[in-house]
Description:
This protein has 429 residues and is mainly alpha-helical. It has 13 helices and 8 strands. The chain folds into 3 domains: 74-139, Dna Ligase, domain 1; 145-211, no CATH class; 224-427, no CATH class. A hairpin with a 5-residue loop joins β6 (328-331) and β7 (337-340). The protein is rod-shaped, with a radius of gyration of 43 Å.
Amino acid sequence: MSERPPISPRSPRAALEPERVPPPPRRSDRARNPFVVVGNAIITLLILAMIGAGAAYYYGRQILETPGPLQDDKVVNIPQRAGKRDIADVLAREGVIDVNPWIFIGGVYALKASSDLKPGEYAFQKNASLRDVIGVIVEGKVVQHGVTIPEGLTSEQIVSRLSDNEIFTGSVREIPREGTLLPETYKFPRGTSRDQVIQRMQQAQKRVLAEIWERRSPDLPVRTPEQLVTLASIVEKETGKPDERSRVAAVFVNRLRQRIKLKSDPTIIYGLVGGKGTLGRPIKRSEITQPSPYNTYVIEGLPPGPISNPGRASLEATANPARTRDLYFVADGTGGHAFTETYDLHQKNVAKLRAMERQTQNDTVEPEEAPPALAGGAADPAAPGAAPRAPAGAKKPPANRASGGAAAPGALPGGRQGAAQSGQPVVQQ
């Protein structure tokens, strides 16, 4: 047990006086240094900033990652020259986002995408988050619209279709040369200029034609790729059946080799209306022998240029036609054609067609229509001799080709022979 210090005797007055409190310890000179004070303040601020940044990061991430309000996939068009605030307004109006525009702008800056926002038509997925929405616009993967150009249209008809399509802008400065456009299905974003569409079609045609020309039959009676396109354009207008193209091409190739006039009805029509493509009425008998650079009933060999824009399949079929000796073909009444090597057999097929036509003439009658035979009243030069004229007044079969194809080559004295397509029949005048 420790001993207590002895109590010093004090007077009663001294005992009543309070004891003096000892002074506080003297603060060190280091603690009063201004650099230390400033340092402590900076550390405090840094700690507070880190806490704030962490809270902001957590909150911002929640906003960026939270699923958006879209209930279904949606396509939205971001207009040209739209600013960040404009884009936010468009997205909010379309229901893609439901945040304040300034939050959207903050998200753009947070993702370092301020200068990467691209105008265009975008597809946003259901419940797309703000991060997803901004990412779609930054990537610039705009919606691609499929545009199909049918085979066999003229350049004027193709330009007209492009002019009627609202996804394109601008106008075509000049109608392209016939046969320089490749009919196909293309994909373009909204806002593509029509001149750009034409250029792409021309480039595709050059590429495809070069490939097909390299693979052509070595004995093909055409000297240039342009002549191949011209012949393919006639084939394209003569049949719409894929399995007939090579055989139709063979008929024309055989005729070229034997220097027999092609006698194709679509060439008559092109000589009359040019790029308009369709006559809108039957071919008149007087028009069969009407002089024209394109009328293959009048001229020998190929016309001076294509009469349409043939597709890849017709180019392929013309470059490598079927190995046949056929010189004639006529509609068989079922949507196809009957092919023959000789004029006599051809006449029999014509007779079969006439019999079928008579069975259905009560449905549609064209009393002024001429029989499907060659023009000019003379027999086909390829025929061994004159044959009796087919009866007039026969009815044509129902149309089987929307493009309004016409008769195929053949021969009957005093008339015209062909595929007998109902789109452009012949009438006497």
